[in-house]
Write a structure and sequence with these properties.
about 50% helix; mainly alpha
């Protein structure tokens, strides 16, 4: 499962930075992924988790963090993030038909 510490490392943010907007953007990215229909089993794959899910959540959280000003809120997601989300929502557990 993605982690806040993993996001801070991905975004090259100080691990000790307690800026509440960092965690807010990370939590919003996790919720966005779940609300978009990313299968729950991908979130429960253990400590290392699913690499594509980790990349998607980190990239999405960074996008939210970089675009957190009121003027930028509500913009459409970049097409690369949309493609990543689409791929993740189509994933099925091994053995599912």
């Amino acid at each position: 499962m993605p982690t806040l510490e993993g996001f801070k490392a991905y975004a090259r943010l100080d691990a000790d930075d307690m800026d509440p907007s960092i965690e807010s953007c990370y939590q919003a990215a996790l919720q966005h992924a779940r609300d978009a229909g990313v299968p729950e089993f991908l979130f429960a794959l253990g400590e290392d988790g699913d690499p594509k899910l980790n990349l998607y959540v980190n990239a999405l959280a960074l996008y939210f963090y970089d675009n957190r000003s009121p003027e930028q809120m509500g913009q459409e997601l970049p097409s690369q993030l949309i493609r990543m989300r689409r791929e993740l929502t189509r994933r099925r557990e091994a053995g599912d038909a």
